[in-house]
Amino acid sequence: MQQKSSCKRILTHLLAGGAALALSLTSWAADKPNVVIVATGGTIAGAGATAANSATYQAAKVPVDKLIAGVPELKDVANVRGEQVFQIASESFTNAHLLTLAKRVSALAKQADVDGIVVTHGTDTLEETSFFLNLTVHTDKPIVVVGSMRPGSAMSADGMLNLYNAVNVAAAKDAKGKGVLVSMNDDILSGRDASKMVNIKTSAFSSQWGPLGSIVEGKAYWFRAPVKRHTMNSEFDIDKIDSLPPVEIAYAYGNVGPAAHDAFAKTGAKAIINAGTGNGSVGNAMVPELQRLRTQGVIIVRASRVPDGFVLRNSEQPDDKYDWVVAHDHKPQKARLLAALALTKTSNTKELQRIFWEY
Ligand code: DGL
């Protein structure tokens, strides 16, 4: 009888413990959103020799688990786990890195137990990755790309707060459906038009169309939403793309000649983004050169080397007559990606131009 009652007592205790454990796991999972931090390297994972080294350091050194451990407040915001996809400085990103990263982000976004994704990234090409993800990952879940301008070892390092902000945005229900976001220096920018405009300050990133919102003490304040096509509304799906056609960028300046454009065409470029002067203007000496390349089947996209504004069609150049495409407000480095994706669908210049107006 005694044995029976103690078994009963143990069983009751185990059941109660199991229930408590299940409850805690459930409450752990249920009472906070689940955010995955996908790490690729960059300065946010950088380390310098001394605290005074805010610009002299080695990027892509600190692993994602140490980044997470370095911001213990993250556990108050979300259930966070990390994945180290790459550990590189972002100037070394290739199309292959972009495709691999976007496919991983897409797979994570499909998981029911993932509510938001943060991508830590070097700032040099952060804007290209954020735009590419914005164009190709079919999810309305928040995807937030974040970096830092100073390594974590520096005085007034910006990475910890940038990461804390990014996780808060990724965990915010009202961040859903706004496309891929960039969270830097308390700004929330659209992944479409965020750009690195200053290469030595923590206020490096901006958009000529302004931030979508701001984040202060972990709360996101929204003031605008994107109007161009992105994510769920994009005709480009990373799950169906395994390679990108070669598209190159040729910079224009006084006295420019066709050497770069010819070299690109010889290496098989399917399109050349001409980073023209002013409103994407093409010098008299270059017009026949670009027309020749067009007759050889190379798509010519007129962009501008000027940071802000947008290229008007048929303004300083008769684009209809020359069968050229204009990049709208996209900087050359973003026009390259959009042209490459568009060329996975079509080489019809009217269709290409539609795509540049819509994304
Ligand atoms: N090497 C640069 C990069 O990885 C460092 C710049 C940064 O991450 O802030 O983009």
Question: Could you characterize the architecture of this molecule?
Answer:
The chain is α/β, with parallel strands linked by helices and about 350 residues long. The protein has 2 domains: about 30-235, L-asparaginase, N-terminal domain (Rossmann fold); about 245-359, 3-Layer(aba) Sandwich (Rossmann fold). Helix content is about 35%, strand content about 20%. The chain is built from 10 helices and 16 strands. The strands form 4 sheets. It has an 8-stranded mixed β-sheet, sandwiched between helices. Strands 13-14-15-16 form a 4-stranded parallel β-sheet, with helices on both faces. A hairpin with an 8-residue loop joins β9 and β10. α4 runs parallel beside α9 (about 330-345). The longest helix has 29 residues, at about 1-30. The chain is globular and about 85 Å long. The N and C termini lie far apart (about 75 Å). D-glutamic acid binds near residues 42, 43, 89, 90 and 147.
